[in-house]
Amino acid sequence: MSPITDRTISLESEVRSYSRSWPVVFDRARGSKLYDDEGAEYLDFFAGAGALNYGHNNPALKKVLLDYISDDRVMHSLDMFTSSRNDFIDTFNSLILEPRGLDYKMVFPGPGGANAVEAALKLARKVTGRESVVSFTNGFHGMTLGALSVTGNSLKRGGAGVPLVHATPMPFDDYFDGDYPDFFYFEKMLTDSGSGLNTPAAVIVETVQGEGGLNPARVEWLRGLSELCRKHDILLIIDDIQMGCGRTGTFFSFEEAGIVPDMVCLSKSISGYGIPMALTLIKPELDVWEPGEHNGTFRGISAGFATAAETLRAYWADDAFSFEIRAKAEKVAKRFQSIVDVTPGITVGVKGRGLAQGIECATGEIADRVSQAAFERGLLIETAGPEGQVVKALPALTITDEELEAGLEILEGAFASVASGELADSASIIPGREESYA
Fold first, then answer.
1. How far apart are CA 137 and CA 140, in angstroms?
2. Of the chain's two ends, which shows fewer C-beta atoms within 10 Å, N or C?
3. What does the pLDDT read at residue 340?
4. Is the four-CA dihedral 276, 35, 367, 394 of positive or negative sign?
5. Quick one: 6-58+319-419 is in which CATH superfamily?
6. Which helix (H) or strand (E) covers residue 202, if one does?
7. What's the rounded Cα separation, in Å, for the pair 360 and 302?
8. Per-residue pLDDT tens digits for 280-317
9. Which residues of the chain are in CATH 3.40.640.10 domains?
C-alpha cells in the first residue's frame, strides 16, 4: 500500500484538485467501481470526467489492449501508417460518419482535448484569414492558452498569466432567462459597423456545457446558431470532448439538432479505455494544412487506436446502445426531479441531458456538502458551474441498472442529510473552497 503522507503531499504541486475532494489512495477499478488501497469500494458517478464512458478496465477492450501489447505491435508512431491507425480510420468512417451522412477528414492533433481545440482554432484562422473567435458565457474548452481564451471561467483564465486575446464572449442559450430573442446581441454586433466586433473566423460551442454547470442548448438555438454562422460566413466548431461519444444518447451530441458543424473536437472517451487520444474532424474543403504544419510527438498512440476501433464495433454498430443510454437517462431525470421536489430549500432544479445530468443547488456550499456526503457513503460525484453549485453526475454509459439505482439511492441520502442539517458544520473538501483536506 502507498498511504497518503505529509511527505507525499509536499512533493506534489498545490495545483492538484480531485485528490482534495476524495482523500483516499485508489488502487483498482473495474466497470463502475473503484477500490482504495484498504479495499473500500466506491461507486463511480464521475467516470474520469467523461473519459471512461465504457467503464474502468472494460473486459472486451482490455483484451484488445493486452493482445496488442503482447504481440509487440507498434506503440508510438507519430503520424506514420500503422495497422491500428488504418483500422480506426476505416471503422470510424464506416460506423460513425457514413451512417450519419457526415463527410469529414480526420486530424490527430495530440493526446488531449485541448489539442483538438487548438487545432480547430488554428485551422479556422488559417482558412479564413481572420483572428477573432466567438465563444460563449460559461463555456470551457481546455487549459492551454488558445483554449483558455475561449473559456469563460475566471479562475481558469486567471491562471494564464498573460492577456487572453482574439476571442469575444457571447451569451449562451437562456443566459438572459428568455428576456431577449436568440442571438439578439450577437447578430446586432455582427451587423453594426460601429460595434467594434471584427468578423470572427469561427464560433466554438458546447451543446451542453459540462464544466459550466450542465447548461443544455435547445435544438432550436443550435440550429439558429448554425444558420447565423452560414449567413455570415463564420466557421462553426462543436466542442464534443465531454458530451460526445454517446454521453447525451447519440454518438455526437449535436445529432438531435440536425446540424453539420464545420469542425468537431473529440477526446476523452474516443479511445474507449482512457488512453490519451484526440481527434479534430474537419470538412474536406477546410483541409488547407501544409504537411507537418500542425504536428506533435503523441499524435499516434497506436494502442488507443486499437481500443477505439474495438469500442466502435462493440457499441456503435447499431442503435441498441443509444436506446440503453436514453433509458438510463430517463431514470436519472425522474429520480433527480423527485430529489428536487422534496428538497425545495436547498435545490433549484435538474439540469443537463442524457447521462450528463445534475441538480443545481441554492449555493456552491450546499453542492459541496452533498458531494462530501456522497463520498462518505461511497459515491464519487463532482460539482460544476461558475460557483460550483451543480452536483454533476457522469456515470459510465455501461453502468448496470443495479449500480445506477444504488448510486441514485446514495445521492438521495446525501441530499436528505444536507437538507436535514446533518452536515451543517462540516468542512468542505471540494477544491477551491475555504477549507480542504491537506
1. 9
2. N
3. 98
4. positive
5. Aspartate Aminotransferase, domain 1 (3.90.1150.10)
6. strand 202-205
7. 40
8. 999 999 999 999 999 999 987 899 999 999 999 999 99
9. 73-315
